[in-house]
Amino acid sequence: MKSTLLKILIPLLITAAFAKEGKAQPAQQNLNISFLLDLSDRIDPKKNPDLYQRDLGYIKSIETAFVNHVKEKKMMLLNDQMQVFFDPIPKIPNINQLSQQLKVSFNPKTSKKDILSVDNTYTQISSKIYQHTIKYGRYIGSDIWKFFKNNVQDYCIKPGHRNILVILTDGYMYHANSIIVDGGKSSYITPEFLRSKKLNAASYQAVMKKNNLGFIAFPYNLKELEIIVLGINPSIKNPYEEDVIKQYWADWFKAMKVKKYELRPTDLAANLAPVIDNFIKGKP
């Protein structure tokens, strides 16, 4: 009898152990993390005194989560990367070189020294990019809409990876070279634009639906892309501004079938660190 029970139980226990082990190893995923940085005048200290420091804090949190993920994997399984994009390219010295330094890729031949160097590299180089932009005052804006139109599929999605796009922006979307209106849809929103559409009351959703308002979407299937938007900074003149901004972005992402997304208003980096960590880890 005991022999029969053992024959039945042992395979079940082995199967359960492997199933549990499989569920407990999210670190085996290959991460492909991309940043899209909005280096418009929103980071001007005269306009928003500590905002660029918050951006650097968010970058630090994501970089830390990425490095921790890499450290948890066996060296032979490494196939992870992280990079930074801009649109348009900032007009600051050595931007190509600086951008290259922020493109890190790990494989089985990667040394532990290379992994440990990422923290220092990202801290120094990202800070230098922000400081140079502020120093030269060349706020050329950020064309997020055009980046999605032309580059998001090619730059941010890599087969066999969990693809994450981190967008640091105030939530408004505007660039002088991408001002398009098609019926109720547009390629941009600004505080003035939202006021003109009378989206300043609790009925904003009904107004948006009635007038078919939203961002112009593209016929993409971004089912392999997860997006987290950090730093949404709505105008205080409209108590519903944050809700309206989030509605625009949420509808846009849904139209392009984004796998998963999160929209977060600006906050101290320390407060958002756990949120960012959970997102990178894939926790609900």
UniProtKB/TrEMBL annotation:
Name of the protein this chain belongs to: VWFA domain-containing protein
Domain of life assignment: Bacteria
Swiss-Prot/TrEMBL keywords: Signal
Range of residues in the leader sequence: 1-19
Organism: Pedobacter alluvionis
